[in-house]
Amino acid sequence: MSFIRVDDGYLTLFNIFHTSGPADQDKLFDQWRGLPPANSQPGLVAGNFHRGLDGRSVVNYAQWESLADYQAFRNEAGTRGRLTQALSFSRMDSMACEVVRTSEPPPELTANKPWFTVVIVVRSAPERQADVLAEMTADDPRLARVPGYVAHAVHRDLAGEHVVKLAQWADEESFGAFLRLPPEPSSLDAVTTAQLYLTRLEYVRGRA
């Protein structure tokens, strides 16, 4: 179990795997469940693995004490071998991020509460990242109009190309009701692209 909090200062990795179908999703989860305990890996706080409801994507939300710890992990021979194997049947997008704002209370990542989780990846030119952050960290008045919202966190991609929001909902139906509300107009629609991943937390590899 872990929380998403600004003050923790963790490096956050969004590793989004794209597969051809549920069988390859299962192969990824089998690989991760076979990893040694998280407390055996210096600097790892938690790996939180979300299965995409589209049957093809998997989102790993990984928290590390520092970039140096993560780089040491990536340089290990075992890590390189496992990644090579995973990429033989999937494609991975990876974004190194920092948390810039969360709801109150903040999101809790635990297998005991497998919330319906929406990951929204917004891409823009680096010079517009501050504008995207300002919009995505503003409170959305529509949330007060539908039940089922739990928590969210907004992340800044350290490369400057993305802003990523992880939002937790009680269930898919609640999020669907939110989507049916008229969207707020945005001046950024013409200069950004967005990708939504509808997922559920399935496996947590944490220190506790």
CATH C-level category: Alpha Beta
Distance between the termini: 7 Å
The percent range for strand residues is: 35-45%
Whole-number tally of structural domains: 1
Structure, described:
The strands form 2 sheets. An 8-stranded antiparallel beta barrel has the order 2-4-3-10-7-9-8-5, surrounded by 4 helices. A two-stranded antiparallel sheet has the order 1-6. The chain has a single domain (2-206), classed as Alpha-Beta Plaits. It is built from 5 helices and 10 strands; from the N terminus they run E-E-H-E-E-H-H-E-E-E-H-E-E-H-E. Helix content is 23%, strand content 38%. It has helices spanning 22-33, 67-75, 77-86, 129-136, 172-179; strands at residues 2-3, 11-18, 44-52, 57-64, 91-102, 108-109, 116-123, 149-157, 162-169, 193-206. The longest helix is centred in the N-terminal third of the chain and has 12 residues, at 22-33. The termini are close together.
In a few lines, what is going on in this structure?
The protein is an alpha+beta fold.
Search tags:
208 residues, alpha+beta, Alpha-Beta Plaits, eight-stranded antiparallel beta barrel, 23% helix
